[in-house]
Write a structure and sequence with these properties.
The structure holds 2 protein chains of 2 kinds.
Chain A: E1 5-7, E2 10-13, E3 19-24, E4 31-37, E5 44-50, E6 53-57, E7 64-68, E8 74-78, E9 87-94, E10 105-106, E11 110-114
Chain B: E1 5-7, E2 10-14, E3 19-24, E4 31-37, E5 43-50, E6 55-58, E7 61-66, E8 71-76, E9 85-92, E10 99-101, E11 105-110
Parallel strand pairs in B: 2-11
Antiparallel strand pairs in B: 1-3, 3-8, 4-5, 4-9, 6-7, 7-8, 9-10, 9-11
The chains are: A mainly beta, B mainly beta.
């Protein structure tokens, strides 16, 4: 049973460029969340996708956008990259939110470096 | 902004000793979860404790939750060098789909 997978593992971009990160959720999960983790900090919530729609969004600008496909996989797109976008981007999957149980399973992350 | 705060920020102990990390949060929760992260890699889920639970065990891990004080603690007993990692608490709040993470405790276990 495959866990959450992310690609690529590492990515180097220059300021102003655009990047797309990909995530495949754990088998049986239909909800995908994206987090940004700066060096030495805890993860910060970017947004969550369920039924191919963005369900909730954190405090991130519109340069950050996403998509969820019918097979539940997801993409995170970041436009007009800034140096401050350098971080580890984590994808987490979970079953559809039910009651008070919201356990999220994380992938290994994509390390993005913006030069 | 990060709501949870872990204490201490860093902890160094000898193998075999116990390690205790604390987490505080500000608003009501559905549950609180602890995660582990090795050297900037992905997060590994350790344990989840619901708001109506006070204590939970999993192997060498013991988690307590005090909702009146809005705090939780993670105890790792008989630590091993392999326990060296960063540990994060994450809170799940009513009406929110996101987990809110603290800034983490960096644990170093000396062999």
């Amino acid at each position: 049973d495959a866990g959450v997978t992310q690609s690529p593992t590492h990515l180097i971009k220059t300021r102003g460029q655009q990047v797309t990160l990909r995530c495949s959720p754990k088998s049986g999960h239909d909800t995908v969340s994206w987090y940004q983790q700066a060096l030495g900090q805890g993860p910060q919530f970017i947004f969550q996708y369920y039924e191919e729609e963005e369900r909730q969004r954190g405090n991130f600008p519109d340069r950050f956008s996403g998509h969820q496909f019918p097979n539940y996989s997801s993409e995170l797109n970041v436009n007009a990259l800034l140096l401050g976008d350098s971080a580890l981007y984590l994808c987490a999957s979970s079953p559809a939110p039910r009651g008070s149980y919201n356990e999220q399973f994380f992938g290994p992350g994509t390390r993005l470096t913006v030069l | 902004s990060q709501q949870g705060e872990e204490d201490p920020q860093a902890l160094s102990i000898q193998e075999g000793e116990n390690a205790t990390m604390n987490c505080s949060y500000k608003t009501s929760i559905n549950n609180l979860q602890w995660y582990r992260q090795n050297s900037g890699r992905g997060l590994v889920h350790l344990i989840l404790i619901r708001s109506n639970e006070r204590e939970k065990h999993s192997g060498r891990l013991r988690v307590t939750l005090d909702t009146s004080k809005k705090s939780s603690s993670l105890l790792i007993t008989a630590s091993r060098a392999a326990d060296t990692a960063s540990y994060f608490c994450a809170t799940d709040h009513p009406g929110r789909r996101a987990l809110t993470f603290g800034s983490g405790t960096r644990l170093q276990v000396q062999p």
